[in-house]
Design goal:
The protein is an alpha+beta fold and about 190 residues long. The protein is built from 2 helices and 5 strands, in the order ααβββββ. The longest helix is centred in the first third of the chain and has 51 residues. The chain starts with 7 loop residues before the first helix and ends with a strand.
């Protein structure tokens, strides 16, 4: 019996010239990855815009609800909730002025009466309306349909409806004619 000795060198696989990736294959893979990445860029841009819109809507909502809460804390006969003369609604318009965006804590930033043009960019407009009703107005179908004038006898006024309407002028969440309206009833 003959023993055949095989060296370790002969057991190795022969090297092939086509092993690994060629330069062409690497370039094709890079182009495919680039096309996929270019497809994702609009998604990132959209998410950035949606985050800005969401932040704007959140701030506007907070400002509207803060005004409602402030009105709820006032006494029923407070001047801010008073309706003038024979009118059936009292309305106050305020605007949030951004002031100088480059200056932190600008004195022109904040709520101002009306819509002034000398306070910088006006971001939101807040209109607060107050109407007053008699409790018997709820007997019809639960809807308040007959507001009392401001000169009505105080003994007939049992409810005040406070409505806050928020609108935006920047073209973000509340821009473009969109509004958010919040209402609350304040009992006597």
């Amino acid at each position: 019996m003959a023993v055949q000795l095989v060296s370790r060198a002969s057991r190795r696989r022969p090297s092939r010239p086509d092993a690994g990736f060629s330069l062409i294959e690497a370039l094709i893979a890079a182009v495919i990855l680039l096309i996929i990445a270019l497809g994702l860029i609009p998604l990132f841009a959209r998410s950035i815009r949606d985050n800005a819109v969401g932040a704007d809507a959140t701030q506007a909502t907070n400002h509207g609800k803060a005004e409602l809460e402030e009105c709820l804390q006032l006494p029923f006969n407070n001047q801010k909730l008073a309706i003038p003369g024979a009118a059936t609604v009292a309305a106050a318009v305020e605007s949030w002025a951004l002031g100088d965006p480059a200056q932190l804590g600008d004195a022109n930033e904040g709520w101002v009466s009306g819509a002034p043009t000398n306070r910088g960019v006006l971001v939101w407009t807040r209109t607060t309306r107050v109407r007053q009703y008699n409790i018997s107005d709820l007997e019809d179908n639960g809807a308040l349909t007959t507001p009392l004038p401001g000169n009505a006898q105080p003994i007939f006024v049992h409810l005040k409806e406070v409505e806050v309407e928020m609108g935006g002028d920047r073209g973000l969440a509340l821009g473009g004619g969109r509004r958010a309206v919040y209402r609350v009833l304040k009992p006597f």
